[in-house]
Design a protein that fits this description.
The protein contains 4 helices and no strands. The protein is mostly helical. It folds into 2 domains: 34 residues, no CATH class; 45 residues.
Length: 79
Amino acid sequence: MCKKFHSDVDNSQWDITLPNRALASRLTRLGIETLDLYDSFVAASAQRRLYRQRDTHWNIAGNHLAASLIAAHIEKFVK
């Protein structure tokens, strides 16, 4: 993946989740609740497309997945 864009970087050096993990770690230390959708999107994308074609925005399936994950996460705060 990264060789396509960065020929001098080995795939084993490329961690696409690092920004999310670093942000979540910092927010957790500050006592701020977080929800990272990345792993769920990766898993679900094996069954269906979640983004608009040639676009970085979610399609309807991606919006439904995000909504269900967010709803499940905040449900524990409102019950």
